[in-house]
Design goal:
This protein is mainly α and 186 residues long. The chain contains six helices and five strands. It has helices at residues 4-7, 16-23, 34-55, 59-71, 131-138, 160-180; strands at residues 87-90, 102-105, 110-112, 153-154, 157-158. Strand 4 and strand 5 form a beta hairpin. Helix 2 (16-23) crosses helix 3 (34-55). The protein is elongated and about 75 Å long. The relative contact order is 0.10. The model has no long low-confidence stretch (mean pLDDT 88).
Length: 186
């Protein structure tokens, strides 16, 4: 918590030192009024979140989050073709108070709204935009992309422009495999 990396270049916060004392369970230097205590507690919650965003990108933080990923603590991808791939929390911005945390799937590389209401109360900046990608790269956890794709049909016939796009993408993928030969990695 008190690692210099976690505390460097944080934005100016009201009652920063008192909030840090509260987070680290140090006894405050002076007694506070009830109003001041409420302000310090709000700042402490925000400060803790900002420190958390940095901690999860440290070696220790990544190791802890890897265990949570393995257990599927953040849920599973709702997309059928992702085969229940575990999700990771991600912020869509590093700026606090902009968006709630979202969940990222490393297989389809898409972002989802969490099902749990408690996640809607967590600021996305408290995980940051880099965390899931850093975890996946650090531990080589990138699952292979799904080769399966849902194709919309009416009475067995493919419909609309999406089908055309999917066919084109499939052809491009096969041509790339041929061009790269043994260098192709799935």
């Amino acid at each position: 918590m008190l690692d210099r990396f976690n505390l460097t270049n944080l934005p100016p916060l009201p009652h920063y030192h008192r909030a840090l004392e509260l987070i680290t369970d140090r006894v405050p230097e002076k007694p506070m009024s009830e109003e001041m205590r409420d302000e310090v507690e709000r700042t402490a919650k925000h400060l803790y979140g900002l420190i958390h965003a940095r901690f999860v990108t440290t070696t220790r933080g990544l190791l802890k989050m890897q265990e949570k990923l393995k257990r599927g603590d953040f849920g599973r991808c709702p997309r059928v073709h992702c085969l229940q791939n575990p999700l990771l929390p991600v912020g869509l911005t590093d700026v606090p108070s902009q968006q709630a945390v979202k969940l990222y799937c490393g297989r389809c590389e898409d972002v989802y709204n969490p099902k749990s209401r408690k996640h809607n109360l967590v600021d996305g900046a408290y995980f940051g935009t880099s965390f899931p990608h850093m975890l996946i790269q650090s531990f080589k956890l990138k699952p292979p992309p799904s080769e399966q794709r849902y194709v919309p049909k009416i009475f067995g016939f493919q419909i609309h422009s999406v089908a055309t796009l999917h066919r084109w993408q499939d052809v491009q993928r096969e041509e790339q495999k041929k061009r790269l030969g043994p260098l192709y990695v799935e």
